[in-house]
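Recall the central idea of this unit: under ordinary conditions, the amino acid sequence of a chain determines the structure it adopts. In this exercise we apply that idea directly, starting from the sequence alone.
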Amino acid sequence: MAIIVNGDGILTGVSSLATALTDLTSGRGTVTGVATVGTLQLGAGVSMSSPRTQNAAIFTNNTEFLTVDDAGRIGIGTISPNTDAHPQNVGKINVGFITARSVAGDIDGNTLVVAGIATFTNASTFKNNVTVTSGNLTMSGAGNIVLGDSSSGTDDRITFGASTDMEIFHNGTNNHIDCHTAGQELYIRPTKDVYFQDYVTDDVLLKMVKDGAVELYHNNSKKIETSSSGITISGDNSTGSYIKGVARFTPNDSTTVKVIWDEGGFSGAGSFQVKDGVAFTAGNSSDLKLYHDGSHSNIINTTGVLKVRGAAGQSITFRNGDDSANVAVFNVDDATHLYHDSAHKFSTTSGGVKTVGQAEIDGNCFPYSDNNSDLGLSANRWQDLYLSGNIYLGGTGSANALDDYEEGTFTPVLDNSLSSVSYNAQVGHYTKIGNQVFGYVYLLATAGSSTAGSLRVSGLPFTSNSVQYHEGGGYTTYLNGTFGTSGVEMQAKPWVPQNQTYVLFHTPEDGNNLLGNETNFANKYLIFHIRYKAA
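Accordingly, the structure predicted from this sequence is:
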């Protein structure tokens, strides 16, 4: 069935037809209220229009979805369009191909959804959001996606992530790749090497080699390079490399700091410091070590000579802990001085050494070569020499050893055959040289009772030796009728028997001991000398 409306005819109120409508043809007319239409065909030069005071509209399910106002603006999902093409938030422009400016002016929509493949040619301007639900957004030919300078945090930026986690933009001065979400990492994942280069000169700034080194450059010259064993730093031959700020060194796979450079340091000293037990070493085999063990400081040299050298013409001085006094001073071409409690005690001289005060020697003291040095000088003699051992004279054997020298006094006593002796003089003194005892006795007795026993003078300072045939003896120097009672002086000789501390007197006529009743000690003298070998 077909309905033809010619001229300015108006067909209204058609809600149903007895026969299915296949064609509706109008020369210049208005058709409203048609429930079922197959094809709406307008004649050549004829337009479909609305009354002048109303918008043209298309309804679906009695709801207006497309509106054209009298200014020619198209609204999709809105009855009040304010731009040439005004899609509402929930609307779509679902096309396969839009040529030139098929949609006049800007596309002003909060969300533009392009389903399928869409091609935009010539200049197209999009405001707010463009969403690609499937497929790709592809640039071909010589075209570009151009964004202006970003003057705020929300314009002219390419953003990534549901929470604008990453942005790429230019702010008019600098270029930015910003990551906004805390805790998220930025991955750059190439399949080969990565270069950062100067745009104008192509100078390398940073190079990251796949499965290899990371290289850092200065003015296109490599300065730092990583390797499987650590890093290599390349410095200028004249100025070297600079490490500024805090530098800490730890063992492998550890965070325990062993070495540090810091203006504060471990103790605020502002120096290069190492922990206790960590050594500065030098030499291929750590031949020199400098370290602190927690209690003491150590300088250990294990090879060759340890040399400490001062500046030319300058002394080397060791000072005490608070730098208040010298400990040792080593002068160039001059004396070396040693101190005790800041007092000078020892110096070297052109002729040897000089000590100030006492010199204590623990161990042997001997000349540089045998039989070539004197102890003291004719004009510089030792005053006293104190020994507890031997002096070896003329040789080094025991026969040359002088082990003792002593001078002293003792009190001689007339006993054994005399009793109740009184003395006007009773003197004895001795000199002991080695094991030889030299004695001198001076007796002046005023009275005494005598018997027939041997005359004996006791009180010797040392016991005589007990070796057979080593008895001692001597001689008398003065008697005045002491020996003898018949007026004839008996020339008896003093004799020191073995292992005794007394003297007997033997008469040369018969070799017998002089008896007490053969003497006279009434104001009589007995003066004699003896020598015997001490035990």
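The chain is about 0% helix and 40% strand.
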